[in-house]
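Good morning C.,

I know you're traveling, so I'll keep this short. The sequence:
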Amino acid sequence: MTQTTRVRPHALTALVVADTPDALAVIQSGLPSADFEIECHRVATRLELGRALAEDRWDLVLHCGAEHITPQVAVELVRESGHDVPVLVLI
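The tokens, ready to paste straight into the viewer:
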């Protein structure tokens, strides 16, 4: 008989680039959470994004149409941080 061991869920940390807390709430409610605990943090400016990338490790950056940060700038800041973090642009 084969026994299946269930892997414990682990936290996925997402840095969300969005103008409003409402955008963050929409993202959090739309992310699948069956296998992962998802911890999200919102930034709205280039300075906040740079600071968040410098201070913490992130599994994912989600760009949700922030007015003050273009997707290109977000990718540039992630590259400059030296971390290998995927950037997803949500349209």
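Safe travels,
E.
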